[in-house]
Amino acid sequence: MNLKNWTESLARASARRRWWTLGIWVVAIVLAVFAIMNLLGDALVTDATFTTDPESMVAFNMIDERLGTDSAKWLDEMIIIRSNTLTVDDPAFTERVNNIYGELTAMGQDVVLNPVTYYMVQDPSMVSADRHSTLIPFKMHIDTYEKVSDIYTMGEKYNTGGFEIYHTGTAAFMQDSMTLGESDMQTGETVGIAVALVVLALVFGALVAALLPVLMGIAAIVVALGLTALVGQAMDLTFMVTNMITMMGLAVGIDYSLFILTRFREERAHGLDKMDAIGVAGSTASKAVFFSGITVLLALCGLVIFPLSIFISMGIGSLLVVFTSVVASMTLLPALISIFGDKVNAGRIPFIQRPRKTTQPGEVASGFWAWITRTVTRAPVVSIIIVVAVLGAAIIPFFDKKSGMSGITAQPDHLPSKQGYMVLQSNFHMGLDSPTMVVIDGDITSPETQTAIAGLQEKLSNDPIFASAIVAPYPQLNMAVIYARVAGDTMSLEALESVTRIRTDYIPATFTDVPAKAMVTGESAFMEDYNVITNNYTPIIFVFVLALSFIVLLLAFRSIVIPTTAIIMNMLSVGAAYGLIVLVFQKGIGASILGFTQVDSIETWLPLFLFAVLFGLSMDYQVFLLSRIREHYKKHGNNAEAVAFGLQSTGKLITGAALIMVAVFGGFALGDMVMMQQMGFGLAVAVFLDATIIRSVLVPATMKLLGKANWYLPKWLEWIPNISIGEQPVKARVYETSKEKRIPAESKIPVKED
Predict the structure, then answer these.
(1) For the residues 694-709, what does the mean pLDDT come to?
(2) Which residues have a Cβ under 8 Å from the Cβ of 178 and sit 6 or more positions away?
């Protein structure tokens, strides 16, 4: 197989063996559905773990190993019973508490562990100051956290006669997050698919052509979810992987098919027969999709090398769905086009498509995109300065970014766990019972260690972020643990800052020259270590993604200028998205208008995640635009004319594709989860900026300014394989139906207007 034409050969083979190709995909989809139904649920987890050993994990594992409690599997929960009329001293109140306690214990020790009531221990901290509320603390096993829904049902049962029953805690938070995530995903899917169909109908002017890309996206998502279910049997994947697959699958699956189908219809309009049109689309658009997909995959590999399970999970899910999208668009789509033929134009929508004359070399192009090109390239330096100034101003707020993770305080107020948390705060002045733990490893019986422990306990007790600090000594295990209960949300900035104080101030001040070592763990410490690791890995992943992307674009366009300018432009759009996220979510400008939740911090994982995803997606438009520019340039040798032709021929497509992506990502941003709001908004804004300001203004202005230097390749690099895209496709010829002679296709039928 010719290396330069292998995508054409694959497209033709898939089209010739259309029923075999379709059959293989149907079997793959059926198997994927089976895997999803039977395996996916067991493959997903809600907790995030490190693949390295930061201090929080070392200390946490030490507690588990020495105490043998397997505490990582047990989550702290609380039920709050409140009455506006009765106090805990009333018999009716006692009866209600005992009934709830009885149903909790009946759930079994594999689900609920060690529930305790005030009447059993007479602990005054378990009763509110007005004595109208009391707590039942207990633990739930992480593998059965979905049983929270049973506790909610039980609470509704006893939520009568003036009593109010609340349940909050880590398991409740996890369950509500899962439910919320599924709801947000359904919202994103509904909005994304609906808008995609409308945009595709406007782009193609035909209903059948509009449906095919959506079917491609759905097929890619289903197969990717099936593969994820299989991967999940070998490793735990966080539940957000399904959101990622759906979001990315709708975005890239539809986009890739959109470009290939459009090229097929364009070549048919030029007069090529069906198989030749499929072949030309395969040699041009399919090759652009392949290189674009490779760039996206390499960018997403940056997520997989990050040592945190949530990143790895989202990276694996994204890789799988982008891979299946590329394969579907290069095999299944040609097969379906071969089956439908010109029926892809069935269901035409009136007044949308209008014929136009083909723009010939040297002829002045007309239309909106031609006007944009002329306006921008008339003063390229001014255009570049304006765009860079606008994007640079958008980046500025990013430098005030504060990193963190959305805790329970950022959840919607209607969630049961959030309602319980707010009651816990107002009635007991405490947060979730997930304390910061200081583990002391060494000879804890020595006087020096005892003095150090007492001094550290005193400092923690005097720190306003902690409601209490209790020491649990285990001298036989050469270990002690100080449990410092956080007074608020363990994911708040104040809680994270307290971890830093303990490590850099309190411990050095008390554990100098002591035969023991103190380490901090707990949810807040975990999050703080997460921030540090993210900061350390960010430059590594940036270099990794940029270097590989440069190489791929070098191979694709045989130029060192094209990948250099592409990388700079993509960094501008990503940076602008960063700044706007901080402006809206952290500073609150426009948050209420857009329906978003203002928070104190931006998700720690978000900037790195957005970089990997957006850098890949931005390259989609760059590759599609530049492939048409290079194709025209290689054919006619006029750089200015090639830029105009490329923007005119892809402007409508890129705008349509961007609207689809913005709709998909924006649909996810409409959900209630703050992390999904930030992610969806960031992706939507970056894609919008990329498809408008970057592709419509900055690219043509830069290419006009650089001229033939755009295509510069040093002689010492001419050895690289010539597998470039944008080469002139093989000239196909068609037979005139009424005459037995060959007529060049390009002289026969005008293309349709963009």
Answers:
(1) 87
(2) 46, 146, 239
